[in-house]
Write a structure and sequence with these properties.
Elements lengths: L7 H12 L10 H10 L5 H13 L5 H6 L2 H8 L5 H19 L3 H5 L3 H9 L6 H11 L9 H10 L7 H11 L4 H18 L17
The protein binds a DNA duplex through helix 2, helix 3, helix 6, helix 9 and helix 10.
DNA sequence: ACCCAGGTGGCCC
DNA sequence: GGGCCACATGGG
């Protein structure tokens, strides 16, 4: 446990042994991953979960149905997620785009090469780098490491690297890890597990498994 | 009454 | 190319 954590891969192995496998993403279908990835932006997962329940209860958690739903109705379902007006419009537009360009078939979109898939997702309003990588990794199941606020915070506390901008940090992790979808999936989930329980905005890591390594 | 949560896009310099 | 800002609900 007091082995030094000098690289992302070492951190991954430590977190896996400490917390055990997380089996992410918490969703039943790839489309549910897409929806969840958008709805959880800058909000606790619990809130996104409520909205997804609303969609399920209304029997509209479906790409075609959302693209045909009125914005007003969609907004009501998405209320718990915060920024619900933005998110409703963006989610509806994204669903409409996939309906039109891929005949509502997510698999056809996900068949593209990782690099061009990422570029295409990033071109859509409401999908930034973290959301794009979450969709590629957990819905399309291709290796694209996800960086989030916890990842940056943990890297900073552990002083793993200096450049915390999204793309350089993503490369830093990918260069350290075996290029393996299951490892990428687990590692990001483990980082969230660590982050939401122990690595909050304030630099206090009492009882944190990494406390000896934190500043 | 605060602060924060698995970001993103638009604007300004 | 980087630093602000709006977006909005729910839980501690």
């Amino acid at each position: 446990m007091s082995q030094s954590l000098t690289s992302p891969y070492e951190l991954y192995k430590f977190l896996l042994s400490h917390f055990g496998p997380q089996h992410w993403w918490p969703a039943e279908t790839p489309f549910e991953v897409v929806v969840g990835a958008i709805l959880t932006q800058q909000v606790a997962w619990k809130n996104a979960e409520k909205a997804i329940e609303n969609l399920k209860n209304a029997n509209v958690l479906d790409l075609c149905k959302i693209s045909n739903l009125s914005l007003e109705k969609l907004e009501v379902y998405l209320k718990p997620t915060g920024f619900y007006r933005q998110k409703a419009k963006r989610l509806k537009d994204i669903c409409s785009y996939i309906s039109k360009e891929y005949n509502s078939n997510l698999k056809r979109l996900f068949n593209k090469e990782t690099c061009s898939l990422r570029a295409e997702l990033l071109s859509l309003n409401g999908i930034g780098p973290e959301t794009a990588d979450s969709i590629i990794l957990y819905a399309a199941e291709k290796p694209s490491f996800v960086i989030d606020a916890y990842t940056k915070r943990i890297c900073k506390r552990l002083q793993l690297t200096d450049d915390l901008d999204y793309e350089p940090l993503k490369k830093f992790f990918e260069n350290s890890l075996p290029k393996n979808v299951e490892i990428y999936k687990e590692f990001h989930a483990l980082i969230v597990e660590l982050g939401k329980n122990y690595c909050k905005t304030k630099p206090v890591c009492k009882n944190c498994p990494l406390s000896k390594k934190c500043i």
